[in-house]
Amino acid sequence: MGYFDTLIEKFEENPELEEAFGKHIHWGYWENPACATGTLMDFAIAANNLSKLVIKTAEIQDGVKILDAGCGFGGTISLLNETFHNLNLFGVNIDNAQVERARKVITPQNNNSIEFINGNACDLPNFNQLFDYAIALECIFAFPRREIFFQEVKRNLKSSGKLIIVDFIINPNIRKFWLWFETQILSRLITDTYGSKATNQVEFIGIKDYENIANKTGFKLDKVIDINKNVQPTYPVINKLIVDNFNDLMTAKGLEIFSQINLINYQILVFSSLG
Question: What is the pTM of this model?
Answer without folding.
Answer: 0.89
